[in-house]
Design brief:
Elements: H1 10-63, E1 65-66, E2 77-79, E3 82-87, E4 103-110, E5 115-123, E6 130-139, E7 142-150, E8 155-157, E9 163-164, E10 170-177, E11 188-194
Antiparallel strand pairs: 1-3, 2-3, 2-9, 3-4, 4-5, 5-6, 7-8, 7-10, 10-11
Length: about 200
């Protein structure tokens, strides 16, 4: 009786290596897709938190803004993608760099960079301009941004160069994110703020 080896044949070895390579390829693709999905979810979560922070900060600043139609220093200004107002609210973002007292806050959209920024500076009584300013970029990947005012009957877009905004009951912010970077389920996000009396 011929003696039989207890090892694998060459064909069995090739089949085992091929099957292992195939399974590893499928597992590697799955892991790569999961990594991409996880990175996208983290980025969306971060942008969503930044959006919530911006909305809440803007809401609080508007509620504590000071407007005086007779004093241009305290005018509520608006234009294409920009609003600016005076407030006595304590600065929370650039606390150490901006002195206390009345501040001029400006929220502005940089269309070329697709960002929403915020600048703050101390008001100077001598020339009506903000003193030393501090700017920060708060949101990215924005395709379009607009501010609207509500007069109690109808919404009007705030356009043109920054000028004094007529009496408004409410202010609306509308942001359209780039289609590949929207942190919310829809591409356009809109919210409104009640103006102080």
């Amino acid at each position: 009786m011929p003696k039989r080896n207890n090892g694998f044949t060459f064909v069995e070895l090739i089949l085992a290596v091929s099957l292992s390579a195939f399974l590893l390829t499928i597992a590697g693709g799955f892991l790569f897709n999961m990594t991409e999905f996880s990175a996208r979810a983290i980025a969306d979560s971060l942008t969503s938190r930044q959006l919530e922070f911006c909305i809440e900060t803007l809401r609080k600043e508007i509620q504590e803004s000071r407007t005086d139609g007779t004093d241009p220093l305290y005018a509520f200004l608006g234009g294409d993608g920009t609003i600016s107002f005076a407030t006595s609210r304590t600065e929370i973002i650039a606390r150490s760099e901006v002195p206390r007292g009345y501040l001029r806050i400006e929220w502005h959209f940089d269309e070329a960079r697709g960002t929403l920024g915020r600048s703050v500076g101390a008001l100077s009584r001598s020339d009506g301009r903000a003193g030393k300013t501090h700017s920060i970029e708060l949101l990215k990947n924005i395709e379009r941004l607009s501010f609207w005012r509500y007069d109690g009957k109808k919404w009007f877009p705030i356009t043109g160069s920054p000028t004094s905004i007529p009496d408004a009951v409410a202010l609306k912010l509308e942001i359209t994110f780039r289609s590949d970077a929207s942190p919310v389920s829809q591409q356009t996000f809109s919210t409104a703020f009640v103006m102080p009396r």
